[in-house]
């Protein structure tokens, strides 16, 4: 190789080596001193949220949900999990709706506290103890307040995890795709737009004009949670589910209770034997049941109230609790702006997909009426959302167990004896009385019965009715067996833990089979 060419090659090799070294030096330098990451620099790495079942539109939200109770929450969760951009509008500072704050949760927590007091006093070891009687309701409610706080925190996390916007305020429709939101504060109102909406605003106690609910001795089922004085006597007007539950609570606290019922018997839609058992136990506990009575007027005084009935009777008491009917919270929604109208009780009519007469507006929960239960409301909300996103598994809820938290509890599903008789279905009855069960004797519960109604030829289970403590839990065993299509023989051929309350199913099934000939 010529000398000049050799020199050029050597220089090129040298340059290449230097470049390589510089490259490695740069790599080593980057490895030693990597780029620093700061949460404050505004740089974010995200993924586009999974989108499905979305309709193209120019609105801010795919769906809005009015109300953060069980129905609204279930609808919002289902919509969010389906990839929808969702906002929930609710006037409370905390989620949970009326069910958590003034309905299901506080009343059932209160009921449990009273139940504990009753059991405490029944125990022979503590029969001389008088604590627990004649205490203000607000004191007994301390446990309920703790449960409410836990429930609010739990459900708040659900919204956060699913990236659901919670907007505090009262919603009011401006048109079919626009909602105005206002608060009780000095903040200005704002508007949001939406493609679809779910109305789940719940209900409130009905307040007739003839009563002064501002008086400190006149209560409804919401206001009663603020009662802060001892009432030795109380009138409960209305013997529906809420009235009967509060009759149990006040009787358990040692109050004298007058229960005014405008029908012939308590909870007349129940199986007649169950209704009779409740009436019997109420009277045993000291509740004065007055059937077929209606209010004429109420006198209110500083030290008492006097209820005048149309029958001419007068009842004097320390306070009155009105539990006669509920009204849907729809009056402030400006439904006229979207062409919707409610019935006299503020309720909306829906089809079997929970759709109102406005195709993109749905309604669920207490605002559509029956069955007005938190359990049903949750399923209604979830299924309404499923219909909205085109889920093939969506269904209309029409089979719901009844759960009444009196002391003791009542729960049922399926047909009653009166219904089966009217339909001329050949049925038979299997019964298990709790007083015969070992577990019931151990825990000191003597009152209660489980009834199984079944077809006497096919043994198909037609209805299950339970009266007694833990009834709301016990019923789910029968509900599952009915839904799976099993017959009465399932209970006979299944081994139950012993001793348990669930064993009542085997006892009742054998009792029923003994009646077949």
UniProtKB/TrEMBL annotation:
Q: Name one Pfam family in it.
A: Pyr_redox_2
Entry EC no(s): 1.6.1.1
Any one Gene Ontology cellular component term annotated for this protein: cytosol
Question: Which positions bind NAD(+)?
Answer: 238-245, 325
Flavoprotein keyword on record: yes
Molecular function via GO? dihydrolipoyl dehydrogenase (NADH) activity; flavin adenine dinucleotide binding; NAD(P)+ transhydrogenase (Si-specific) activity
> What SUPFAM superfamilies does this protein map onto?
FAD/NAD(P)-binding domain, FAD/NAD-linked reductases, dimerisation (C-terminal) domain
Q: How is the cofactor bound?
A: Binds 1 FAD per subunit.
Q: What class of enzyme is it?
A: oxidoreductase
Query: Is the keyword Glycoprotein in the record?
Result: no
The protein depicted here goes by the name Soluble pyridine nucleotide transhydrogenase
Source species of the chain: Moraxella cuniculi DSM 21768
């Amino acid at each position: 190789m010529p000398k000049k060419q050799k020199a050029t090659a050597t220089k090129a090799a040298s340059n290449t080596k230097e470049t390589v070294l510089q490259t490695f030096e740069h790599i080593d330098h980057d490895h030693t001193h990597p780029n620093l990451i700061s949460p404050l620099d505004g740089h974010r790495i995200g993924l586009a949220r999974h989108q499905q079942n979305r309709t193209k539109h120019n609105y801010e939200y795919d769906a809005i949900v009015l109300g953060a109770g069980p129905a609204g929450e279930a609808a919002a969760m289902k919509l969010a999990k389906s990839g929808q951009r969702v906002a929930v509008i609710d006037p409370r500072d905390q989620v949970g709706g009326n069910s958590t704050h003034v309905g299901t949760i506080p009343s059932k927590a209160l009921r449990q506290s009273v139940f504990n007091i009753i059991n405490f006093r029944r125990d022979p070891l503590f029969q001389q103890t008088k604590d627990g009687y004649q205490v203000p309701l607000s004191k007994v409610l301390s446990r309920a307040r703790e449960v409410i706080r836990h429930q609010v925190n739990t459900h708040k996390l659900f919204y956060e995890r699913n990236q659901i916007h919670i907007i505090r305020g009262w919603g009011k429709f401006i048109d079919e795709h626009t909602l105005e939101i206002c608060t009780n504060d000095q903040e200005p109102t704002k508007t949001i737009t939406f493609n679809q909406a779910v109305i789940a605003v719940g209900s409130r106690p009905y307040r007739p004009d003839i009563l002064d609910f501002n008086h400190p001795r006149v209560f409804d089922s919401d206001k009663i949670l603020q009662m802060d004085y001892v009432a030795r006597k109380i009138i409960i007007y209305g013997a529906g589910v809420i009235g009967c539950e509060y009759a149990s609570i006040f009787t358990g606290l040692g109050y004298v209770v007058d229960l005014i019922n405008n029908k012939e018997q308590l909870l007349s839609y129940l199986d007649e034997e169950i209704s009779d058992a409740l009436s019997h136990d109420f009277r045993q506990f000291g509740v004065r049941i007055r059937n077929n009575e209606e209010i004429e007027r109420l006198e209110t005084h500083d030290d008492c109230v006097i209820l005048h009935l149309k029958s001419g009777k007068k009842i004097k008491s320390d306070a009155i609790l009105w539990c006669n009917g509920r009204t849907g919270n729809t009056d402030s929604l400006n439904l006229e702006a979207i062409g919707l109208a409610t019935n006299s009780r503020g309720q909306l009519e829906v089809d079997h997909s929970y759709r109102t007469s406005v195709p993109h507006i749905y309604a669920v929960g207490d605002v559509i009426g029956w069955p007005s239960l938190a359990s049903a409301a949750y399923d209604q909300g979830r299924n309404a959302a499923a219909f909205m996103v085109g889920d093939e598994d969506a269904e209309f809820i029409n089979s719901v167990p009844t759960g009444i938290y009196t002391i003791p509890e009542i729960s049922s599903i399926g047909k009653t004896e009166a219904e089966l008789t009217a339909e001329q279905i050949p049925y038979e009855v299997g019964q298990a009385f709790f007083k015969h069960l070992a577990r019931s004797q151990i825990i000191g519960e003597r009152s209660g019965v489980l009834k199984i109604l079944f077809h006497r030829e096919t043994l198909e289970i037609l209805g299950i009715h339970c009266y007694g403590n833990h009834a709301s839990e016990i019923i789910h065993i029968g509900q599952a067996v009915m839904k799976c299509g099993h017959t009465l023989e399932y209970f006979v051929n299944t081994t139950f833990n012993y001793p348990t309350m669930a064993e009542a199913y085997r006892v009742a099934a054998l009792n029923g089979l003994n009646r077949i000939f």
